């Protein structure tokens, strides 16, 4: 059917928009089928149509990245990887789009640096900015070396550096780790040296990690799903625990990309000094143990490279010989690379467990909501209605329920209005002197409030319930036309009678 749709541009564009909608859904099978259809469409489309389709896909990717959660990560990863493959089909078009959208990211960063207002900073510190950097970095290192797309690597790396230097606040440490990981990935896949360790040293030098946190917390942070922490979270122990964990992961991944290079001991030397300084100042044993483990692995790898360099006969100016030597060392592999591989496997398992747990929790919520609503009498429910809020229940009075049983019709509850005589200057005629003396002697003094004739009451049961729940009482008598005293069998309040005699609490509402 694709050749048929290809002959009708309007119909083919409508088909592409519909497939793009399926591509953004959470159903995995539908997403896979939509990607296959998009591949076939792009191969038969002309250059103008192809550019229009890829632009639509990129905009859809950015829109769906606005909110990130553990359950949304698989969908975002799939969209990013499939979009990278689609752009790789036309690298000239990918360069034009990359130049435009990377320049747009640079424009947002420049505006935030010139005028550091909340609105400008929010254009940088958001999930869409992070995922855009992640997408273009993955496209560049997957196509490396490429004479067409390689020129975009330098401006993208400069944007990442400018973003890291924009605002160095502890609240944005999660955002810093996201950008550092992007730079580490570019450095590892392309072989380009990118300085990242200074940003990690700044985090390690934070005073929060040198002493025990003031506030304990039971729930850990999901660091791959946050870019900012609140002021209250800055005081929690989970933040410090997560900072050490993320510092360990980011440092390990970056050093893993450089562990086979001939200059690794010199690269790691300033970092080792900072780690030793931290161990001397830190008073938390758990943090010191984690940093000590990283320090031991770095020293082990430095010793490994130093032993290998003893047999070197070529000069430092011979770049080709150095490259061959590093390739040979990388195949051994170095101790740090073996340790990093094991650590990443364990971390990926933990992350998959978190995603599965979040999906199970969401499913349990849906099932429990469905069962609860079925028990309440709402049997025929659709899947879209499961996550909707439950309707508020209303309690019916006993008199209404009896009348409803007798007549078979639903009785609507209305508001009951009570009016005092227009000639009365006050609602209360007298208060017994004996009761007043008792109130004066007590520690709690009642407060009497008056209501006008326009006041409305919700119902008899609400008045009785409010009165019975309150404190010291005094007797109030309201006189009007036709006084009437109630028998014991009658309700305590009869709003139809003009005369009421009852016990009321310290706040009297009539």
UniProtKB/TrEMBL annotation:
Residues 368-418, 478-510 are annotated as: Disordered. The keyword Nucleus applies. Keywords: Nucleus. One of its GO terms (molecular function) is transcription corepressor activity. The keyword Ribonucleoprotein does not apply. It is found in: Nucleus. Its main location: nucleus. Residues 396-418, 478-493 have a biased composition (Basic and acidic residues). PANTHER family: NUCLEOLAR COMPLEX 2 AND RAD4-RELATED (PTHR12687), NUCLEOLAR COMPLEX PROTEIN 2 HOMOLOG (PTHR12687:SF4). Belongs to the NOC2 family. This is Nucleolar complex protein 2-like protein. It comes from Armadillidium nasatum. The lineage of its organism: Eukaryota, Metazoa, Ecdysozoa, Arthropoda, Crustacea.
């Amino acid at each position: 059917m694709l050749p048929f749709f290809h002959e009708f541009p309007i119909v083919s564009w409508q088909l592409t928009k519909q497939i793009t909608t399926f591509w953004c859904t959470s159903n995995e099978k539908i997403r896979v089928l939509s990607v296959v259809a998009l591949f076939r469409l792009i191969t038969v489309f002309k250059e103008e149509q192809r550019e229009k389709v890829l632009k639509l896909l990129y905009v859809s990717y950015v829109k769906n990245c606005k909110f990130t959660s553990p359950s949304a990560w698989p969908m975002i990863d799939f969209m990013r990887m499939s979009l990278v493959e689609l752009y790789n089909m036309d690298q000239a078009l990918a360069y034009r789009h990359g130049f435009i959208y990377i320049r747009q990211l640079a424009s947002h960063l420049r505006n935030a640096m010139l005028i550091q207002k909340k609105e400008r900073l929010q254009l940088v510190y958001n999930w869409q900015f992070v995922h855009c950097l992640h997408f273009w970095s993955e496209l560049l290192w997957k196509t490396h070396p490429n004479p067409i797309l390689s020129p975009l690597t330098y401006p993208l790396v400069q944007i990442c550096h400018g973003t890291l230097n924009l605002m160095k606040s502890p609240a944005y440490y999660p955002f810093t780790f996201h950008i550092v990981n992007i730079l580490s990935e570019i450095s590892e896949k392309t072989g380009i040296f990118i300085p990242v360790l200074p940003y990690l040293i700044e985090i390690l030098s934070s005073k929060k990690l040198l002493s025990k946190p003031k506030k304990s917390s039971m729930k850990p942070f999901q660091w791959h799903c946050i870019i900012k922490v609140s002021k209250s979270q800055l005081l929690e122990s989970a933040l410090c625990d997560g900072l050490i964990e993320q510092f360990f992961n980011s440092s390990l991944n970056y050093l893993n990309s450089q562990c086979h290079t001939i200059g690794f001991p010199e690269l790691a030397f300033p970092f080792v000094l900072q780690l030793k300084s931290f161990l001397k100042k830190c008073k938390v044993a758990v943090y010191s143990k984690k940093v000590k483990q990283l320090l031991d692995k770095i020293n082990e790898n430095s010793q490994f490279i130093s032993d290998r360099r003893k047999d070197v006969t070529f000069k430092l100016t011979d770049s080709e010989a150095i490259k061959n030597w590093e390739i040979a060392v990388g195949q051994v592999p170095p101790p740090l690379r073996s340790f990093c591989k094991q650590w990443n496997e364990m971390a990926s398992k933990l992350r998959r467990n978190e995603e599965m747990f979040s999906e199970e929790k969401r499913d349990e919520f849906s099932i429990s909501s469905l069962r609860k609503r079925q028990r309440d009498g709402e049997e025929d429910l659709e899947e879209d209605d499961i996550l909707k809020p439950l309707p508020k229940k209303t309690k019916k009075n006993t008199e209404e329920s009896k009348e409803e049983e007798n007549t078979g019709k639903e009785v609507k509850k209305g508001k009951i209005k009570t009016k005092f005589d227009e000639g009365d200057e006050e609602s209360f005629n007298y208060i017994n002197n004996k009761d007043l003396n008792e109130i004066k002697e007590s520690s709690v003094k009642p407060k009497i409030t008056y209501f006008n004739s326009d006041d409305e009451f919700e119902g008899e049961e609400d008045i009785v319930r409010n009165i019975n729940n309150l404190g010291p009482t005094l007797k109030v008598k309201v006189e009007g036309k036709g006084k009437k005293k109630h028998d014991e069998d009658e309700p305590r309040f009869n709003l139809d009678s003009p005369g009421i005699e009852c016990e009321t609490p310290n706040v009297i509402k009539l």
